[in-house]
Amino acid sequence: MTARPGLLLILLLTLAAPQAGRPEPIPLPETDGAYGWLMSQRLRYENAPRLAMAKKLMVSGDAAGAEALLREILAIDPGNNLAPVYLARIATLQNRLGEAATLLDGVLARHPDYLDGLAARAALAVRLNDSATAMQRF
Question: How far apart are CA 130 and CA 33, in angstroms?
């Protein structure tokens, strides 16, 4: 009997993955915070389940749980672009509009063409009745 390599890989990944609850914490690398490209990509990959969990918490109405998880992601990976966008959405829903604008402006300062950030900032500008910023972001 011969096993297919892909099937064996799926089995190993299934056995190695955390089974329930929050994802396991990622150990901080032994650096001064200046991550190289490879480390940044590893952090993005390992934070993907955490971002998915945060999105589920947001949709289910657990804003506090989602916010705590997103802040944990940002502590580990300060260059993550999606976590501040999600945090800004939570802040907007809780009427913390200044904090939401600061988070989104930080993302857009690093990556001016980031579509999720542009759309969220434009929606926030509409909520703030700032039509000039809304038109600029669209």
Answer: 36
Average pLDDT of the chain to the nearest whole number: 77
SS3 string, the chain, reads: CCCCHHHHHHHHHHHHCCCCCCCCCCCCCCCCCCCCHHHHHHHHHHHHHHHHHHHHHHHHCCHHHHHHHHHHHHHHCCCCCHHHHHHHHHHHHCCCHHHHHHHHHHHHHHCCCCHHHHHHHHHHHHHCCCHHHHHHHC
Alpha-carbon distance of 85 to 82, in angstroms, equals 5
What are the φ and ψ backbone dihedral angles of 4, each rounded to 5 degrees?
-75, 135
- Neighbour count for residue 9 (Cβ, 10 Å): 10
Amino acid identity, residue 75? A
Note the maximum CA span of the chain: 68
**pLDDT value for 67:** 95
Rounded-to-integer distance, Cα 75 and Cα 124, Å: 24
